[in-house]
Design brief:
The chain is α+β, with helices and mostly antiparallel strands. The chain has 2 domains: 6-210, Alpha-Beta Complex (H-NOX domain); 242-331, Arc Repressor Mutant, subunit A, CATH 1.10.10.60. It has 17 helices and 7 strands. The strands form 2 sheets. A 5-stranded mixed beta sheet has the order 3-4-7-5-6. α1 (10-20) runs parallel beside α4 (49-62). It is globular. The two termini are 17 Å apart.
Length: 332
């Protein structure tokens, strides 16, 4: 899958702040992501979900249960304008339905849904399509943060009736009990937590109809901008992905996008990336697929990705993954 979705720096900032207390430098966590200190100082910086996941992978390598901790720290105020719209909603159900209507603003990697089962409501996180190795981390982060958001909205804890997870129980399972405080099920059919459905009708203490209407309208406009930029970036990736064996270069890509090279470069910079970074990411994704799914020799894969020499491909793959292509294939 190509990581064409854009997101904010909220999760990345949360990772950095969480490890800051332990004396770990941001450079170690940002390694390989293409995110700089200057990017962190700009409130309007947009990054790709791939960049976000690279930072999260660095965090998981240092602490396997970090998803539970990050989720605990992800309060409703972290969602900016959407957070204010949620806080001023009339009921918890209204707030959750609004949040699920704007997944781009929520920054989730899942398709979130509210599923009724008798007197229970399951808040379910499904349709995950990112790095499988990071699935448990992302599930932990998502569900704990959504529970925290519900409690922020209500102003008190939300009693859970159960929680279930598709992945096997990890060796830090005891930490799950601290975060969910309800019956747990692993190796389940879905990722979700349940609460009594009467909570959906619970009035929120900070509800304000006028403020909510204004914030909801601003969310609608922000979402339009977000999805428009995602579509634009998606088009660029689609064009590049079809030409990996003979990449068009910045000027050639700009011509295909019906704009000048200067305009394309500026837009890519605003999105927090460059032409070469996009090309490398697409080549890396395709290389992994071909190494895992095909039986082509390494030199043929190098040719398909536009490398004039096999050695150049090997050096690039080591830079991207930390291992040589020949090591990656049997390991996978």
């Amino acid at each position: 899958m190509l990581h064409s979705h854009l997101t904010t720096l909220n999760a990345v900032s949360l990772v950095l702040n969480t490890f800051k207390a332990e004396g770990l430098s941001s450079e170690a966590l940002l390694a390989g992501s293409g995110i700089s200190a200057a990017d962190l100082s700009r409130a309007d910086t947009r990054i790709t979900t791939n960049q976000e996941m690279l930072v999260c992978a660095n965090a998981v390598a240092l602490r396997r249960d970090i998803g539970l901790e990050l989720g605990r720290r992800m309060h409703v105020s972290s969602y900016g304008m959407l957070g204010y719209a949620l806080l001023t909603s009339a009921t918890l159900g209204d707030a959750l339905r609004l949040a699920l209507h704007y997944p781009a603003l929520l920054g989730t990697l899942f398709e979130l849904s509210l599923e009724e089962e008798d007197e229970r409501i399951w808040l379910t996180a499904g349709d995950y399509r990112e790095n499988p190795a990071l699935a448990p981390f992302n599930v932990e982060f998502c569900l704990v943060s959504m529970k925290v958001t519900c409690e922020d909205l209500l102003g008190h804890p939300l009693p859970l009736l159960g929680a279930r997870f598709e992945h096997p129980a990890p060796d830090y399972q005891a930490h799950y009990t601290e975060r969910f405080d309800c019956p747990l099920q692993f190796d389940a059919v879905s990722n979700a937590f349940a609460f009594d459905k009467h909570w959906l009708e619970q009035p929120l203490p900070l509800a304000d109809a006028i403020t909510h209407q204004a914030m909801a309208e601003r969310c609608r406009k922000q979402n339009t901008e977000f999805t428009g930029r995602q579509a634009w970036l998606g088009r660029i990736r689609q064009l590049l992905a079809a030409q990996l064996n003979a990449a068009p270069g910045l000027e050639g890509l700009a011509e295909q996008m019906n704009c000048s090279a200067r305009t394309l470069r500026r837009h890519l910079k605003d999105l927090g990336c460059s032409y070469q970074e996009l090309l490398d990411e697409l080549r890396f994704e395709q290389a992994k697929r071909m190494l895992c799914e095909d039986q082509l020799p390494i030199y043929r894969i190098a040719e398909a990705l536009g490398f004039s020499e096999t050695a150049s491909f090997r050096h690039a793959f080591v830079r991207w993954s930390g291992v040589a292509p020949s090591q990656f294939r049997p390991h996978r």
